Amino acid sequence: MRIQHSRAWLWIAPALLLVLLTSLLPMMTVVNYSVQDVFSGDQFFWVGSEWFQQTLTSSEFHGALLRTLAFSAIVLSIEVPLGLWVALKMPPRGWLSNVYIILMAIPLLTPWIVVGFIWKVLVDPSAGLIGVAAGQLGFEYDLNNPLIAWVTIILMDVWHWSSLIALLCYAGLQSIPVEYYQAAAIDGASRWSLFRYVQLPKLRRVLLIALLLRFMDSFMVYTEPFVVTRGGPGVSTTFLSLDLVQTASIQFDLGEAGAMSIIYFLIILAVCWSLFSVMMARE
Fold first, then answer.
1. Residues paired with residue 46 on neighbouring β-strands, in sequence order
2. What is d(CA 212, CA 275) in angstroms, rounded to the nearest whole number?
3. Which of 57, 72, 133, 196 is most buried, by the most CB atoms less than 10 A from its CB?
4. pLDDT of residue 283
5. 147, 145, 146, 126: which is closest to 135 by C-alpha?
């Protein structure tokens, strides 16, 4: 048995090596930057926790964090109910359900940067479908307005990712044994009772997984708002990811960017661990 177990480790060794090279080593590099002050890219001076203290007390970091949390909360509050509603309305089987699945997979297969350019063209007041239609209705679609910029980014994210939740919920609905529906029909359960006491409990784990995936994606959103608004107007759509990239690549403050990256990672890890703990506790 011990020989077999040692051979099993040999089979997964390439995967472990790949994880080591692609995640652990870059993470250690970031940790190294976070405790040092970097000059000219090759001169390092130990500063300890100075960058962490500066980041945690920075008003710019607090503002970017609040904007990112607000964005995640808004899109999740829209996409989760919308995706669940779409899944409930989809036909359970047949060629029509296959058509719906293919159509909903199209946004998921579209690269993030392409999604950003599509919506940037759509809201263009001179040539975009949404921008021109708004102008004909007497409404100026101006991305220099913070409210319009936020609405655009939220609509873009809802279009891009609601189908993911819908497909996950649809798969969860298909996994419910037909006996539950038969028992509900015999008991004369209403449509709401069927959803409340049969479908929703069976979808709890699927919804938690969808919530976990979408939180990570929405909290790390970068490409779409960068393409559409460049973080503007002002800093109204500058989320943590944009602030981090600006600190690292434009300001070239690698030490501060490293500390910000670790704090960013720990926030995501804490929230994901909390959701995972809730899911396992319910199991």
1. 36
2. 7
3. 72
4. 62
5. 126
Tokens representing 147? 């409210």
Q: How far apart are CA 82 and CA 189, in angstroms?
A: 24
Q: Is the dihedral of CA 252, 253, 254, 259 positive or negative?
A: negative
Output the pLDDT for position 187.
Answer: 84
Domain spanning 58-252 has what CATH number?
A: 1.10.3720.10
Residue-by-residue DSSP string for 161-203 = HHHHHHHHHHHHHHTS-HHHHHHHHHTT--HHHHIIIIIHHHT
If you ran DSSP here, which 8-state letter would residue 43 be given? E
So what's the pLDDT on residue 40? 66
Integer Cα distance of 53 and 198 in angstroms? 49
Domain boundaries, the chain: 58-252
How many C-beta atoms surround the C-beta of residue 68 within 10 A? 22
pTM across the whole model:
0.87
- Strand-pair partners of 38: 44
Instruction: Determine contact, residues 44/36, Cβ cutoff 8 Å.
Output: yes
Instruction: Point out the residues of the chain with pLDDT beneath 50.
Output: 1-3
The residue whose two tokens read 């011990």 is 2
Predicted local distance difference test score (pLDDT) of residue 1: 45
